[in-house]
Design goal:
Elements lengths: L1 H22 L3 H13 L6 H13 L3 H13 L6 H13 L3 H13 L6 H13 L3 H13 L9 H14 L2 H13 L6 H13 L3 H14 L6 H13 L3 H14 L11
Helix pairs in contact: 1-2, 1-3, 2-3, 3-4, 3-5, 4-5, 5-6, 5-7, 6-7, 7-8, 7-9, 8-9, 9-10, 9-11, 11-12, 11-13, 12-13, 13-14
Amino acid sequence: MYNITMSSTYHVLYNQMITVYGRSRDLDKAIEMFNTARIKGVTLDEKAYTNLIVYYGKAGKIDEASILFNQMQEEGIKPGQVSYNIMMNVYPCGGSNKEAAQLFNEMQRDGLSPDSFTYLTLLRAYAAGKKYMEAEEAISSMKKQGGIGISPTCAHYNVLLSAYAKTGVLEDVERVYELLIAAGLIPDVACYQTMLRFYLDYGYVEKGVSLFESISDSGGAKSDWFIMSAAVHLYRAAGLSIKAQGVLTCMNSLGIPFLKIRLAK
């Protein structure tokens, strides 16, 4: 009983130390704690492994994170949904987008069902790898997941919106935006920012003005500094100086700083 209690105590202690050093960005110390625990025969659980995987990922050490993920399984610890999600999230940070997609399939072979965060991570991997069709298929797939489906959120659609925005293709950007609306979602601030940024970057001034005014009418601007600043630039580009000044006055009264944005020539 004493040995079991002590082992449990050390297990908790080392987990805490790994977390403390990891959060303080002292990766070397976190690794030292992890290795010390193993040398002393302290049994480390799935959480200890995934914590260190997270810190490896934040430090850009993707190979080390992948090795540790495999090592965990070699130690007889079967990764759960959270562990798969964490490792999938690490891969795109280092440009290992193909590996993230492979892990998605491996997770399902292990009998685990993807959740909303799993799909969000998969979408980021596809977007980073410029696999836009696969990203759209992933959104369609999540709607059918497990027979009952997982409802995509604004965050899922915004990954695709942002990816298409970088291509500069108006038709694709607006098509995805309409898919979001058709899904019964109200665009969030991030989606509005993506759309306005796109219209600014590619000189679609009238479309940008129209979008801002629809946002303003619905109360969706929420005093966001980018949205308000974008409106000023768009109104000025459209020759609507009075409206631009009106937005600026509103920003000043709310204490919102004005952001200088470079418009398309």
